[in-house]
Structure formats: structure tokens, C-alpha cells
Design goal:
- It is a single chain.
- The longest helix has 38 residues.
- The chain is built from 17 helices and 7 strands.
- The protein is elongated.
- The chain has 2 domains: 145 residues, Response regulator (Rossmann fold), CATH 3.40.50; 206 residues, Hypothetical protein af1432 (Orthogonal Bundle), CATH 1.10.3210.10.
- It has a 5-stranded parallel beta sheet, with helices on both faces. The protein has a two-stranded antiparallel ribbon with strand order 4-5.
- Bound molecules: fe (ii) ion.
- The site of fe (ii) ion has 5 residues, from loops.
- Fe (ii) ion (FE2) binds next to loops.
């Protein structure tokens, strides 16, 4: 899917806030019509396009200025924007449609909406400038009704494909949350894990693409546990060898579940290798030292730290200093990357992460699910049962 690489600031706000629910945006309304927003300060121009599209299965919205258009985009699920090359700003001053296009393409909420620029300004340079600003298509006036209609149909077809891919990813994240909710004691473990991993990744200067992978890995790393029966996952006491084999399989099964999604490729090494050990005694591949993907090593430290500092029915939450001592001990035993543990020790003391430490120490209460989420959870559970067969 066309997934944006969020900026560091956006990731930071994600890490401190909501899960990447990215609820799928419907591409049609309840009557099966795609929603198109017409942006032009000249009434006649909008009326012309409305006339051309009159017989089509479209819900047409209008805006006279960029600001008005942005307001419509904030409250409506728009499938396509048709904008004039020159669009007025809030004060009525003519402004470049290119700037408007950039605004649409730089927002997480609207970046997937295709934009068609309509202009009477001829010239290849303008077209190039328009496409560089993020416009998806460019039409020069006078408009040919048949060409406009064909172009719109094709752009909406593309949008539908993008939406369905986004929906598939949304389902995977929901599946991961279902896995997390099976264990009533872990509360918002994935949310904390995502935040801690991004913080550690930032501290060692990873690029935004890797921070995004870490953030997503926080939610998806244990998705393979959908294939581990409750009898094994929540067994009191020691697992036998056969049960351990099933438990260990959550790593490669999780990778298999996410592999078809192209956008999740950077997350696959985290999912597969987050239980490796520095000395090669981990699973599933027995990788050693630097051969263990860096992102997997980062997420692993955050995972262990969160487990140690979290309260469970069978144990108390360890204080942060005690948890760090434990991680250093594991580094001495040869299990963890010693350099990474040293950086992590500093990172968890950052004031911005103190709330997470507090959150981890408190007993967790998962937020109640909405009716919609509940029904999704049920269908996901059915999927899980299929996967366990
Ligand atoms: Fe795991």
C-alpha cells in the first residue's frame, strides 16, 4: 500500500498517543457513490464540472477556497479532489493550487486522496510542477467531458485499490490487538512497547523509516500468537518440549501472516527475530551478535523492560532501576546486545518516558471495545481459529 513515511514528530506523537488503527476510509457512501470535492473560486467552473458529472454515481461537494476545501476534507471522507490551478486562499487572494496540493499530500489523513488539477495554463513546465507538488493527474482546458469522466473513473479505481490495501493492513493491526487482548494482564503493552522502541531508535539516530518499522513492530511483533492455543499461551507452570515448539512458532508464523503486505516488509525481521539472543541461543534462527537485525534487538529490549516493569497476578512490577540491572545482567550472560543496553539505560530515564514507566507499573485495564470493534474482534477470532488448524 502507499504508506507514508511519517516524520519523526508524527511518530513521536503516535508513540505517545493512539494505536495506528488507521480505520479504513470507505470509498463510497451508503448509496454506493464516490465523493468528489470540487475546488474553484469561480462558480461557473464548478457548475460546468457538476454538469459533466451529473449522471455519474458521485456525491459532489464544493469549496470556493483552499481553507474551505481543507475544512471539508477534515469532516468528510473524500475519494477525489478536482482543483483549479489557481485557488483562492482564505482572504480571497488567488493562490497556487500547487501549495494546496502539497497540503493535501502532507497530511496523514488526506495523503491518499487523488488530486486532479484542472488548468487553462498550458505548458510542460506547469504540468511537471503540478505533478511534483503531488497532483496525480493534470487536465488542460477546454475540458472534454468524455476525457474528464474517463480520467475520474480511472483515478477512483486506483483509490479503491489503495483503500482495500489499507483495509487489509488495518485488519492485521486489529488482529494484533486481538492477540494482545487475549491476555488481560498485559493492558496496553503494545502501545508502551511501540513508544519505548521508537525512543531507543531515535536515541541511536535511526532514520524515520526505521522508526516507523519499530512503531509498527510494537503492535505486530507477537501477531503469530493467534496460532498459539490458550492452553499453551496461558499454561500455569512449565511448558513441555512440544508446547515450547508451538510457542516458538509464533515468530515465523507472524512473519508469514504479514509477509503478503508489501508495506510491512521492514517490520518482518522484527516479527521473526525478536526472540534471538546475542550469543546465538535464541530462536527461531539462532542468529548471533550483529547478525540479529538491529530493529529486532531494539524491540526485544523494550519488550523485556516492559514485562519486568509491569505488574502481573503472579509478580510485582520491578522499579525501573531494578529492571535495568536485570537487563545488564542478561547482557553479561551474553543474551543481549551490551552497547544497546547501555543506551537503553539512559533512554528510559528521559523525562518524556516517565509516564510510560508509571503506566507500566500500574495494573492495566484495557479500554472497552466499541460495538464495531467487538464484531471485528469476533470475526478475527474466527480467523485465528482457522489459523490454528
Ligand atoms: Fe514474542
Amino acid at each position: 500500500m502507499a504508506d507514508p513515511v511519517q516524520t519523526g514528530a508524527e511518530l513521536a506523537s503516535l508513540a505517545a498517543g493512539a494505536a495506528p488503527s488507521a480505520l479504513a476510509v470507505p470509498w463510497t457512501d451508503s448509496l454506493g457513490r464516490a465523493t468528489i470535492l470540487l475546488v474553484d473560486h469561480v462558480d461557473l467552473n464548478r457548475q460546468l464540472i457538476k454538469g459533466i458529472l451529473k449522471a455519474g454515481p458521485y456525491r459532489l461537494l464544493e469549496a470556493r477556497s483552499q481553507e474551505e476545501a481543507i475544512q471539508v476534507l477534515e469532516r468528510e471522507n473524500v475519494d477525489l479532489v478536482i482543483s483549479e490551478w489557481i485557488v483562492s486562499d482564505w482572504s480571497g487572494r488567488p493562490n497556487s493550487g500547487l501549495e494546496f496540493c502539497r497540503r493535501i499530500k502532507s497530511s496523514r489523513r488526506t495523503h491518499l486522496i487523488p488530486v486532479l488539477i484542472v488548468t487553462s495554463v498550458q505548458g510542460i513546465e506547469n504540468e511537471v510542477a503540478g505533478l511534483e507538488s503531488g497532483a496525480d493527474e493534470f487536465l488542460v482546458k477546454p475540458l472534454q467531458p468524455a476525457v474528464l469522466r474517463t480520467r475520474i473513473r480511472s483515478m477512483l479505481r486506483q483509490k479503491r485499490i489503495v483503500d482495500s490495501l489499507e483495509e487489509a493492513e488495518t485488519i492485521l493491526f486489529a488482529l494484533a490487538q486481538t492477540v494482545e487482548r487475549r491476555d488481560k494482564e498485559t493492558g496496553n503493552h503494545c502501545q508502551r512497547l511501540a513508544g519505548l522502541s521508537v525512543a531507543l531508535g531515535s536515541a541511536i539516530g535511526l532514520p524515520d523509516e526505521d522508526l516507523l518499522a519499530l512503531y509498527r513492530g510494537g503492535f505486530l511483533h507477537d501477531i503469530g500468537k493467534v496460532a498459539v492455543p490458550d492452553a499453551i499461551l496461558f499454561k500455569q507452570g512449565e511448558l513441555n518440549e512440544e508446547e515450547w515448539a508451538v510457542m516458538r512458532s509464533h515468530t515465523w508464523k507472524g512473519e508469514e501472516i504479514c509477509r503478503p503486505m508489501h508495506s510491512l516488509r521492514p517490520v518482518l525481521p522484527i516479527i521473526r527475530n525478536h526472540h534471538e539472543r546475542w550469543d546465538g541461543s535464541g530462536y527461531p534462527d539462532g542468529l548471533k551478535g550483529e547478525d540479529i537485525p538491529l530493529l529486532a534487538r531494539i524491540l526485544q529490549l523494550a519488550d523485556i523492560f516492559d514485562a519486568l516493569t509491569s505488574q502481573r497476578s503472579y509478580k510485582k512490577a520491578l522499579p525501573v532501576d531494578e529492571a535495568i540491572r536485570q537487563l545488564r545482567h542478561e547482557a553479561e550472560l551474553g543474551w543481549r546486545d551490551p552497547e544497546l543496553v547501555s543506551v537503553f539505560r539512559e533512554v528510559v530515564r528521559l523525562p518524556s518516558l516517565q509516564w510510560k514507566a508509571g503506566m507500566a507499573a500500574a495494573p492495566h485495564a484495557a479500554e472497552p471495545l466499541s460495538a464495531e470493534q467487538e464484531s471485528m474482534r469476533e470475526s478475527l477470532l474466527r480467523m485465528s481459529q482457522q489459523l490454528m488448524k
